[in-house]
Amino acid sequence: MKHIITLLLTLSVALVQAQIVTPGLGQTYTFQDFATAYPTSVTSPSSGHYTLLQDITVSTGDTLLLDANTQEILCYNPITLTIHGTVASAPRTDTLLVTCNTSNCNGDFYEILLDNAEGIRFANILFEYGNHIQVMQSEVSFEQCVFRYFQESCIKYSNANPVIENCTFYENRKAVISSAANVTGAPVIRYNTFYHNVLNNINQPQINLGPGNAGDTIVIEGNHIEGCVAMSGGIAIANLLGVGHTNAIIRNNTVVNNRYGYTQQGPGIDAIIEDNTFKDNNLETNPMNGGSGISIYGSDTTCRAKLRRNLITGNLWGLTAINKHRIDMGTVNDPGNNCLFNNSNGGVEYNLYNNATCDIEAVGNFWGDNDSTYAESVITHYADNPQYGLVNYLPVLQIEPDILSFSLWDGQMDLEFYPMGGDTLFYGVGCVVPDWYDIAPTMVLPMWVTCSPDPSLPQNFLTETPVIYTLTTVDGRSKEWVIYVTFGPGVVEYGDLPVTVTPNPATSGRLVLHNDSEEAVQVEVYALTGQKVYAAECHGTQMVMNTSTWNSGVYLLKATQNGRSRTFKVVVNH
Question: Hey, do 405-484 and 499-572 end up sharing a CATH topology, with the first three levels equal?
Fold first, then answer.
């Protein structure tokens, strides 16, 4: 079979000058196959290392296998790898390097063209010094890949929905993911890192998308997008030609240090923008040309955006709404819980600028202060200019560095805490707790409030030194909460007493304390509320306790003998 494949490949080369074209007979090829059949077109200076001297086309039906033995692909200028079939990446623990012969490329870098292909998977590949990867009407995924030093967009797509996950893009010359204005697509871009791209310093965002497909959704989720040059933006979705309809979800991204954070422009766009951070996107030197954390620029009211729980701070403008739009930043029944503060230029804070005739519902957001008068001062709308639409921002979201609830849990004990005055939490009911009680509390905090130390870390609440939690609001106000845990009977010492308790669980209305010594034992039983339900002294080898009048549940039995104590957890079931 190898001889037949080689003959067919040879015929293909004869028909297509300066190309290797697979015959499209459903075969799988590796670069070693190409090097064996065409040693002057694909050389292998060492095992797993290949140099491409001619273009390669994988025809429809054929598969290019990037197996674990393929370690490096070096492209001489300019090389095009065209895929009409499919590409499979074998599981590997190392990284495949695809690169250009930079000393001899003269600015002509390799490109990869995926045209009407399907089932393509690129995984664990470092792409560098490329021109672009063009995705046309193809099904493709990029997983755990790295893209660096590209001259054009790393990934260009048209009429395709590429999936790009857990990849890293850095120090590329232009927008790293892009599409044209007259083609559609709905990429899924998740959990990637975009760092210092658009180094040509041109007016492009790092993610530059055109219109979407009406039946699909653009997803941009969980990415870190950080810029470094004055003209580079974060994310843009534009439907400038009014092509079809675009659905988009922008969620859980961190967009920092760009010319702007997110911009949406054109008709026929429905975007959900939630749980993102747009911070310090202020590299634009002229605030009239950009600098918004979020900018919504519609040609009509089909340019729609719903915003929930976004942090927008440190930009030249918070949110700018231009021309026409339909923006939902929160309603009475569904508050926005967005946090906009300290977005300013020219010494004036602009957390929302409604430079449009359309109204905006913006109920339940934080604008830098709990005072609604302050909110009015940082929102530009109808009240400032009757040509602008009205922003309905009342009531505003109130943020205080408070603990909403606090409980301790060791698997069976849930102790509720509540504030008793000032900034201190006091435990209000006495309870017996063993001295190994070193746990993490369950703490509920208000929106946009953080806590130090981390409330998920265990603490010893039984020492004489109280546990102090510092709560800080997103705008820098802080308060210390001092947690005192007081117990009615005092802290229990976990002694080694010759005492046992049976049966446990107690299901027959009786609980027996067994004393293996001649010394008397003092017995106290507490409910988890701290209420003492039983007290007696055992002077013999055993003592029977009647549990029929106790509620079903968990109890703490404290046994004390000659100043030494031991606590048992007992369960009573009726």
Answer: yes
Tell me the domain boundaries of the chain: 1-152, 196-398, 405-484, 499-572
Walk along the chain (574 residues) and give the pLDDT tens digit of each residue. Answer: 333 333 334 334 433 445 899 999 999 999 999 999 999 999 999 999 999 999 999 999 999 999 888 999 999 878 999 999 999 987 788 899 999 977 666 667 899 999 999 999 999 999 999 999 999 999 999 999 999 999 999 999 999 999 999 999 999 999 999 999 889 999 999 999 999 999 999 999 999 999 998 789 999 999 999 999 999 999 999 999 988 899 999 999 999 999 999 999 999 999 999 999 999 999 999 999 999 999 999 999 999 999 999 999 999 999 999 999 999 999 999 999 999 999 999 999 999 999 999 999 999 999 999 999 999 999 999 999 999 999 999 999 999 998 887 776 544 444 444 443 445 444 433 344 444 456 677 788 999 999 999 988 888 776 556 788 899 999 999 988 877 655 433 333 334 678 888 888 888 899 999 998 888 999 988 776 667 889 999 999 999 999 999 988 878 788 888 877 777 778 888 8
From residue 282, alpha-carbon distances to 46, 178, 316, 338 in Å are 49, 23, 5, 20
Burial class (CB in 10 A: 0-12, 13-18, 19+), 104: exposed
Q: Domain 499-572, CATH 2.60.40.3080 — does that match? A: yes
Which phi and psi angles does 219 have, rounded to 5°? -120, 120
* CATH architecture entry for 405-484: Sandwich (2.60)
Residue 159: both structure tokens together: 């009429």
